[in-house]
Write a structure and sequence with these properties.
The complex is a heterodimer.
Chain A lengths: L6 H10 L1 H19 L35 H37 L1 H16 L2 H11 L5 H9 L4 H14 L3 H8 L4 H37 L10 H10 L8 H29 L7
Helix pairs in contact in A: 2-3, 2-11, 3-4, 3-6, 3-7, 3-9, 3-10, 3-11, 4-7, 6-9, 7-9, 8-9, 9-10, 9-11, 10-11
Chain B lengths: L1 H29 L4 H12 L3 H14 L6 H15 L13 H5 L3 H27 L6 H13 L3 H15 L19 H38 L2 H8 L4 H13 L3 H7 L1 H14 L5 H11 L2 H29 L1 H5 L4
Helix pairs in contact in B: 1-15, 2-3, 6-7, 6-9, 7-9, 8-9, 8-13, 9-11, 10-11, 12-15, 13-14, 13-15, 14-15
């Protein structure tokens, strides 16, 4: 059985998911300097004093060098994957915590639900960056992994809320009742009956959690509270600001990380809209 | 029903405040750095203010009762904070109190927040409504999509781009501060003009990112109003199109916007704090940034606590006002 019986069907489906694909395209463009960068520069050129400082872009340094003598392209080649890694780690952890609690709250209801829902409400009231600044100022965050996990602690609440609402509505469906009447346990119902129906929601939530994580981590990094072991896009912007790159006309230093970040945010936004349409076909009409 | 909603909403506010205050206490007691000792070291290295420093150390030892059991310290901390609103002393500006450092910044932050929202709400609501209003040109739909894309980009990235465009490449607006340093200030036209010029870029950075947010939620609200009979009735009555659009369409779609706004308030405030830092605007963002750079621990905590509590309070008020605004919710037990 095929979903797209005719070539017209395929075209319509691509059209329908155009936002999704444009989003993927944006992310790919954001990754281009990282992918083809090694053809032009060596990763070690991202180290301090690997070349003359403040060189404008030319053939040997396509994005120039910054004030500490680092090659900006080499800095991007490290920073982009580092920022995306924080996003994926944070988004993954947030999705696991959020959907687990959402499942538990929606499925078991009563007091469990009341407790989890209150925690979620309180968590959604507190601005993530506020708590993260407090943590970042007291415990210097060292690694990308630590950064991702710390940020994830403030990014799981909306997943929990969405998944809880979905489980509440799904668990009253006919097929779940049938499964329960035929003696299926909670485990069976959660993983074999409910979970498969929630995959589009989980995917959309994952993308949103990745976005929140990157947003919060860049916010911390712009304040100078980034991971100390690795350079990310946010800490590159922080350094450029710290060294007043904009006023010294070194546009090739601060502009590339901003462009890459803008592409990442736009890409994630479009992917999230695309997945949302997939998860809620009723949105199609608008 | 309404009553239990109000009780629930108010208790969430108090739990939030309690959690924020407690996290503040826990963090300060398990941090590997001792803020007071760090300060003492710095003062000693500078060879200055050591008398003040000794006084400070003694003060904090007594104040936090560092020889007391932990729960006593916690209760003392709660008493000082909640009964006296006392956040302690600034380490960088000792003997200034934290409140003396934080309070002057608050009007600037609130002002930016207000004007950015005012601009964004007016433009965004009209655009979003026009985007689904059948008789408006398609152009509005595309402009709305454009602003929705801008809404996906963090305020501080927009701020950096605007700073470059309008303060560096085409220097028509000032790049930092709320006034030109050394200029005379009075309640006159020149001062107001200077104030507006300095606020333009920070307000725009936040407003540009918010227009899409307002437009998006207005588009949804307006779409649900579009099929209503009273619009048809207004047309049959022969009312002019702008009257139908503003008085009949938008007015009825405005209400759900209040809740939409409350949901994103936290993200808005923390985003704006970073914008202030980029433009060196004298709000909480700049205070926070300076405190982070000088390790002024108690000021950091003061700013963070203020942000958490005021966001929670604003969300509480919006949620409580909303039922009063909408007669359908007030009378029915819909919640």
């Amino acid at each position: 059985m095929s979903f797209y019986a005719s070539s017209e069907g395929v075209a319509a489906a691509i059209n329908r998911h155009a936002t999704l694909w444009i989003g993927v395209l944006f992310l790919t463009i954001a990754l281009l300097p990282t992918i083809i960068g090694p053809l032009f520069v060596e990763p070690v050129q991202g180290e301090v004093l690997s070349d003359i400082p403040n060189l404008p872009p030319d053939l040997s340094h396509p994005f120039g060098t910054q004030s500490e003598g680092r090659d900006v392209l080499a800095v991007l080649m490290r920073g982009t994957p580092a920022t995306l890694a924080i996003g994926l780690i944070g988004g993954g952890v947030a999705l696991v915590i959020g959907s687990a609690l959402g499942f538990i709250a929606g499925f078991f209801g009563r007091r469990t639900d009341a407790i989890i829902s209150t925690v979620v409400d309180v968590g959604l009231t507190i601005p993530p960056l506020a708590i993260l600044i407090l943590i970042g100022a007291s415990f210097p965050v060292v690694s990308l992994l630590a950064m991702g996990i710390v940020v994830a602690t403030t990014a799981w609440m909306s997943s929990a809320r969405v998944i809880r609402a979905q489980v509440l509505s799904l668990k009253e469906r006919e097929y779940v009742r049938v499964a329960r009447l035929s003696g299926a346990g909670n485990f069976h119902i959660i993983f074999l009956e409910l979970m498969p129906n929630l995959i589009p929601f989980l995917a959309a939530n994952f993308v949103n959690a990745v976005t929140s994580t990157i947003l919060a981590s860049i916010g911390l990094e712009v304040l100078g509270l980034g991971p100390q072991q690795s350079r990310t896009l946010g800490s590159t912007i922080y350094e450029a600001m710290y060294h007043t790159a904009m006023w010294r006309g070194l546009w090739w230093w601060w502009l590339p990380p901003i462009v890459v970040l803008v592409l990442i945010f736009l890409g994630l936004f479009l992917i999230s809209i695309g997945l949302d349409r997939y998860a809620n076909p009723r949105l199609e009409r608008h | 029903m309404l009553r239990s909603y109000v009780v629930k909403r108010i208790s969430i506010f108090f739990i939030t405040v309690f959690v924020a205050v407690t996290i503040n206490f826990i963090v300060i007691h398990i941090t590997p750095q001792n803020p007071v000792a760090v300060l003492m070291g710095r003062l000693a290295a500078r060879g200055a203010m050591v008398e003040n420093g000794a006084q400070l150390l003694k003060f904090y030892t007594e104040r936090f009762g560092l020889d007391q059991p932990l729960y006593v310290q916690y209760l003392m901390y709660l008493r000082n904070l909640l009964l006296h609103g006392d956040l302690g002393y600034s380490l960088a500006y000792f003997p200034a109190k934290v409140s003396a450092v934080v309070l002057p910044a608050i009007p600037w932050t609130l002002g930016l927040l207000f004007f950015a929202n005012l601009v964004a709400a007016i433009v965004g609501n009209i655009l979003g409504a026009l985007a689904v209003w059948g008789r408006a040109p398609r152009l509005f739909t595309w402009v709305t999509y454009g602003f929705m894309s801008l809404a996906a980009i963090p305020f501080y990235l927009l701020a950096l781009i605007l700073l470059y465009l309008f303060a560096f490449l085409w220097p028509v607006l000032p790049s930092s501060g709320a006034f030109t340093p050394g200029s005379s200030r009075a309640f006159d036209l020149a001062t107001s003009f200077e104030f507006i010029r300095h606020a333009t870029l920070p307000v725009l950075s936040v407003a540009l990112g918010l227009i899409g947010f307002w437009a998006l939620s207005m588009r949804g609200a307006m779409a649900s109003v579009m099929g209503e009979d009273y619009l048809t009735y207004a047309r049959v009555k022969g009312l002019r199109e702008p009257t139908i659009f503003f008085r009949y369409g938008m007015r009825n779609a405005m209400l759900p916007q209040v809740t939409a706004f409350a949901i994103d308030l936290g993200r808005l405030v923390s985003g704006q704090v970073l914008v202030e830092l980029i433009f060196s605007y004298p709000g909480l963002g700049l205070v926070l940034y300076n405190a982070l750079r000088t390790g002024d621990y108690f000021v950091i905590q003061g700013v963070v606590l203020f942000i958490i509590i005021s966001v929670a309070l604003a969300m509480l008020l919006l949620d409580l006002i909303y039922p009063l605004l909408d007669p359908r919710i007030r009378t029915a037990s819909a919640i």
